[in-house]
Design a protein that fits this description.
By secondary structure, the chain is an alpha/beta fold. Helix content is 29%, strand content 31%. The protein has 8 helices and 11 strands. The longest helix is centred in the last third of the chain and has 13 residues. The radius of gyration is 19 Å and the shape is elongated. The two termini are 31 Å apart. Bound molecules: 1-O-pyrophosphono-5-O-phosphono-alpha-D-ribofuranose.
């Protein structure tokens, strides 16, 4: 019997694009396009099983081997530092991790800076690297509100088009790191399902 390759796809914004990429590479699973609430889809003939998970959970599934490969943003990889192989920069889902603040914000370097973010480790690493003391307020979403309500001085968050910042009268002060989608693999799977995984990589490279 053919060994199935388990692939974690990020639900949401990037999801369809990611699936289309695998489909183009020859790993199709047409039932995934049927509009329903199912989360797992497989095509035994092609040897693939896809499942939709929250984008921030893809790395956990892959790290623990519930998925052999998956697609995760570089932001998630930097934040959680999962034990996985980062195989390819897929060149889409491009955005940046940035520090933003209210337009009239003036930093006082003698004060501890209060930073609201969903990406505590990225924020901490960044400010450590420039030798700045900070207090982190960990939030789970709508980060842009924090400086407006005086909950924090600045935010560390993802900026794609910049529209969210603009519409909330915030601006980028500093770019921390560029972000894009990455193909990741479980370390054991990479060894034992190497031919399937390298085949996918080869096909994806062709379609670049
Ligand atoms: C991200 C980020 C910003 C927004 C930036 O949130 O947190 O709010 O996108 O995009 P823009 O620069 O194009 O306006 P996302 O939509 O991923 O949802 P989240 O708040 O649940 O993280």
């Amino acid at each position: 019997m053919k060994q199935m390759l388990n692939i974690a796809l990020p639900k949401g914004r990037l999801g369809e694009k990611v699936y289309d990429m695998f489909e183009k590479a020859g790993f199709e699973c047409p039932s995934i396009k049927e509009n329903n609430r199912k989360l797992i889809f497989e095509n035994e003939e092609a040897g693939v099983r896809y499942f939709w998970v929250k984008p921030s959970d893809v790395a956990i599934y892959v790290e623990r081997g519930a998925a052999d490969i998956g697609v995760a943003g570089k932001d998630i990889l930097l934040e959680y530092e999962p034990e996985v192989y980062e195989l390819m920069d897929l060149g889409f889902g491009k955005c940046r991790m940035a520090v933003a603040a209210k337009k009239d914000f003036r930093d006082d370097p003698n004060r501890t800076l209060c930073v609201a973010t969903k990406f505590s480790r990225i924020a901490q690493n960044y400010y450590s690297s420039i030798g700045r003391d900070i207090d982190i307020i960990h939030l789970n979403g709508s980060i842009e509100i924090a400086p407006i309500l005086g909950l924090s001085d600045v935010i560390v968050d993802i900026v794609e088009t910049g529209t969210t910042l603009k519409e909330n009268n915030l601006e980028v002060i500093e770019t921390i790191v560029p972000i894009s989608a990455r193909l990741i693999a479980n370390k054991t799977s990479f060894k034992f399902k190497n031919s399937q995984i390298t085949k996918i990589m080869r096909e994806l490279q062709k379609n670049d």
